[in-house]
Amino acid sequence: MMRDELGDLSTFLVVAEERSFTRAAARLGTSQSAISNAVRRLETHLDIKLLARTTRSVSPTEAGEQLLGTLRPALGDIRQQLASLAQLRERPSGMVRITTSRHAAQTVLWPAVDAVLARYPEIQIELSIDGALTNIVADRFDAGVRLGESLEKDMIAVRIGPDLRMAVIGAPDYLAKHAPPKTPRDLIAHRCINVRMATRGNLYAWEFEKAGQTLNVRVEGSVIVNDSALAIEAALAGHGLACVIEDDDLRAHLASGRLVRLLADWCPPFAGHHLYYPDRRNLSPAFRVLLEELRARARQEGSQRREQSITRE
What we know:
- Helix content is about 45%, strand content about 20%.
- The protein is built from 9 helices and 14 strands.
- It has a 5-stranded mixed β-sheet with strand order 4-3-5-14-6, with helices on one face. The chain has a 3-stranded antiparallel β-sheet with strand order 12-7-13. It has a two-stranded antiparallel sheet with strand order 1-2.
- A hairpin with a 2-residue loop joins strand 9 and strand 10.
- Helix 2 crosses helix 3.
- It is rod-shaped, with a radius of gyration of 33 Å.
């Protein structure tokens, strides 16, 4: 078989270099009889004598010298290629495909992706923005990113972001003409910006909770979007109230006074973004690098939030 032939050729090369079956056996960590059998098997297969043996020495025949001239560079190239493969194993490379929502991509994924690509230029990362609950196995994604409440039970999930909160927002000009809602039920009297859910195609029912009481309110309005960034733009333009995830961009609008937050006491925190994938066993080195980067950033952010909480107290 080819594997045996390659092994016998390697053994022959060591014997020819050492000019001794005994030294070749010591170098290869095997018995002298195994060395002799390998050379004999190779000579039988080629039907030619490769080594001249005497009681005191072993030397290549003319055919052996010719074979050595071919073997040395060939086996050297093979060793070099194997070393290159080892470097690839140690140096992560290849494609990582992730399906994610736009919010997760911008707030959690991209900073980690940017850092990984800077350190490992051999890695390629594809981020597919999709609000639907994609079947990552069927669509050949390595992982997906979703909110903790949307995860499938048969997936391995790793938390990569902090708790999140929804925020009901409106522009000052709009609120100057419409009395701010005091309870979620008051939203029925307001123009609101609806968001169509990619997962089911229906309009998102605004969810509220306070003191153990849960309310889902279906709102009405003249604007329907399928992206939270557009909902914020519509609210800024005075087309009504919007309900979106609170993040740094939204906090900047609130701090500047361009938007006003409403019903904050009805919007408790909920589980944030998680990376999910089907199997922890056959993870590529490239995927492991990104996973560890996300985990490290999540730990760092959690530590910073705890320190800020202690400082405020």
